[in-house]
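Kindly inspect the following:
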Amino acid sequence: METARVLSIYHDSVVDGEGLRTVIFFAGCPHYCKGCHNPRSWNLRNGNEISVQQIVEEALNPLTDITLSGGDPFYQAEAAANVARQLKAHGKNIWAYTGWTIEQLLENKNSHQLELLKYVDVLVDGPFILAERDLTLSFRGSRNQRIIEMKNILE
Protein backbone atom coordinates (compact mmCIF):
# COMPACT_ATOMS: atom_id res chain seq x y z
CA MET A 1 0.00 0.00 0.00
CA GLU A 2 1.36 3.38 -0.98
CA THR A 3 -0.57 5.54 1.53
CA ALA A 4 -1.76 5.34 5.12
CA ARG A 5 -4.23 7.29 7.23
CA VAL A 6 -2.19 8.94 9.98
CA LEU A 7 -3.38 11.12 12.85
CA SER A 8 0.05 12.51 13.63
CA ILE A 9 3.75 11.81 13.90
CA TYR A 10 5.18 12.81 17.26
CA HIS A 11 8.91 13.27 17.77
CA ASP A 12 11.02 12.74 20.90
CA SER A 13 8.63 10.63 23.00
CA VAL A 14 9.98 8.91 26.11
CA VAL A 15 6.72 7.20 27.15
CA ASP A 16 5.95 5.06 24.07
CA GLY A 17 8.77 2.53 24.40
CA GLU A 18 12.34 2.44 25.62
CA GLY A 19 14.59 5.35 24.77
CA LEU A 20 13.84 8.37 22.61
CA ARG A 21 11.21 7.53 19.99
CA THR A 22 9.32 8.90 17.02
CA VAL A 23 5.70 7.77 17.28
CA ILE A 24 3.50 7.26 14.24
CA PHE A 25 -0.17 7.41 15.25
CA PHE A 26 -2.20 5.48 12.67
CA ALA A 27 -5.90 6.26 12.34
CA GLY A 28 -8.56 3.61 12.79
CA CYS A 29 -9.20 1.16 15.59
CA PRO A 30 -11.87 -1.55 15.82
CA HIS A 31 -11.46 -2.20 19.56
CA TYR A 32 -13.33 0.82 21.03
CA CYS A 33 -11.80 0.34 24.49
CA LYS A 34 -13.78 2.04 27.26
CA GLY A 35 -11.51 4.71 28.77
CA CYS A 36 -9.30 4.91 25.66
CA HIS A 37 -6.88 7.84 25.91
CA ASN A 38 -7.49 8.70 22.24
CA PRO A 39 -11.05 7.86 21.08
CA ARG A 40 -10.58 10.28 18.15
CA SER A 41 -8.24 7.62 16.74
CA TRP A 42 -11.03 5.07 16.30
CA ASN A 43 -12.36 6.63 13.11
CA LEU A 44 -10.18 5.97 10.08
CA ARG A 45 -11.44 9.17 8.44
CA ASN A 46 -9.97 11.30 11.25
CA GLY A 47 -6.51 10.72 9.85
CA ASN A 48 -4.80 12.39 6.92
CA GLU A 49 -3.86 10.30 3.93
CA ILE A 50 -0.07 10.42 3.69
CA SER A 51 2.24 8.54 1.38
CA VAL A 52 4.30 5.79 2.96
CA GLN A 53 7.41 7.54 1.66
CA GLN A 54 6.46 10.80 3.42
CA ILE A 55 5.86 8.93 6.67
CA VAL A 56 9.24 7.22 6.45
CA GLU A 57 11.04 10.46 5.62
CA GLU A 58 9.45 12.30 8.54
CA ALA A 59 10.16 9.44 10.94
CA LEU A 60 13.81 9.05 9.95
CA ASN A 61 15.46 10.93 12.77
CA PRO A 62 18.96 9.59 13.48
CA LEU A 63 18.46 10.06 17.23
CA THR A 64 15.19 8.16 17.68
CA ASP A 65 13.74 4.72 17.29
CA ILE A 66 10.16 4.10 16.16
CA THR A 67 6.82 3.32 17.79
CA LEU A 68 3.74 2.41 15.76
CA SER A 69 0.60 3.35 17.66
CA GLY A 70 -2.83 4.67 16.97
CA GLY A 71 -5.59 3.82 16.72
CA ASP A 72 -4.17 0.43 15.93
CA PRO A 73 -1.42 0.05 13.31
CA PHE A 74 -2.56 -3.53 12.70
CA TYR A 75 -5.87 -2.10 11.43
CA GLN A 76 -3.85 -0.67 8.51
CA ALA A 77 -1.39 -3.53 8.53
CA GLU A 78 -0.45 -3.42 4.84
CA ALA A 79 0.63 0.23 4.97
CA ALA A 80 2.13 -0.11 8.46
CA ALA A 81 4.20 -3.11 7.32
CA ASN A 82 5.49 -1.09 4.37
CA VAL A 83 6.50 1.74 6.73
CA ALA A 84 8.07 -0.67 9.21
CA ARG A 85 10.01 -2.54 6.51
CA GLN A 86 11.59 0.68 5.26
CA LEU A 87 12.39 1.96 8.75
CA LYS A 88 13.86 -1.40 9.75
CA ALA A 89 16.14 -1.19 6.69
CA HIS A 90 17.54 1.98 8.31
CA GLY A 91 18.33 0.02 11.47
CA LYS A 92 15.42 1.29 13.56
CA ASN A 93 14.19 -0.55 16.65
CA ILE A 94 10.40 -0.77 16.28
CA TRP A 95 7.74 -1.04 18.97
CA ALA A 96 4.06 -1.50 18.07
CA TYR A 97 0.89 -1.19 20.11
CA THR A 98 -2.22 -3.22 19.30
CA GLY A 99 -5.54 -4.03 20.92
CA TRP A 100 -5.32 -7.57 19.61
CA THR A 101 -3.32 -10.17 21.49
CA ILE A 102 -0.34 -11.81 19.82
CA GLU A 103 -2.32 -15.06 19.84
CA GLN A 104 -5.17 -13.42 17.91
CA LEU A 105 -2.80 -11.90 15.37
CA LEU A 106 -1.12 -15.25 14.76
CA GLU A 107 -4.44 -17.14 14.60
CA ASN A 108 -5.98 -14.60 12.17
CA LYS A 109 -3.33 -15.54 9.60
CA ASN A 110 -3.80 -12.11 7.99
CA SER A 111 -0.77 -11.90 5.69
CA HIS A 112 -0.29 -8.15 6.20
CA GLN A 113 -0.50 -8.40 9.99
CA LEU A 114 1.96 -11.28 9.97
CA GLU A 115 4.32 -9.30 7.75
CA LEU A 116 4.12 -6.32 10.13
CA LEU A 117 4.98 -8.59 13.05
CA LYS A 118 8.23 -9.57 11.27
CA TYR A 119 9.53 -6.00 11.59
CA VAL A 120 8.40 -5.40 15.18
CA ASP A 121 11.01 -5.78 17.91
CA VAL A 122 8.60 -5.26 20.82
CA LEU A 123 4.82 -5.67 20.76
CA VAL A 124 2.54 -4.21 23.43
CA ASP A 125 -0.59 -6.30 23.00
CA GLY A 126 -4.12 -6.50 24.31
CA PRO A 127 -6.97 -4.05 24.67
CA PHE A 128 -6.94 -1.32 27.28
CA ILE A 129 -9.23 -2.50 30.09
CA LEU A 130 -10.37 0.34 32.32
CA ALA A 131 -10.92 -1.97 35.32
CA GLU A 132 -7.25 -3.04 35.05
CA ARG A 133 -5.85 0.46 34.57
CA ASP A 134 -2.55 0.91 36.41
CA LEU A 135 -0.69 4.20 36.24
CA THR A 136 2.45 2.63 37.74
CA LEU A 137 3.08 0.46 34.67
CA SER A 138 5.70 1.49 32.15
CA PHE A 139 4.68 1.68 28.48
CA ARG A 140 1.14 0.31 28.93
CA GLY A 141 -2.13 1.39 30.46
CA SER A 142 -3.68 -1.74 31.96
CA ARG A 143 -2.35 -4.86 33.68
CA ASN A 144 -3.65 -7.23 30.99
CA GLN A 145 -1.43 -5.65 28.34
CA ARG A 146 1.88 -7.40 27.75
CA ILE A 147 5.27 -6.20 26.54
CA ILE A 148 6.50 -8.96 24.24
CA GLU A 149 10.00 -9.31 22.79
CA MET A 150 9.12 -10.56 19.32
CA LYS A 151 12.41 -12.34 18.61
CA ASN A 152 11.26 -14.87 21.22
CA ILE A 153 7.91 -15.41 19.49
CA LEU A 154 8.72 -15.65 15.81
CA GLU A 155 11.82 -17.87 16.02
The CA atoms of residues 99 and 127 lie 4 Å apart. The chain has five helices and seven strands.
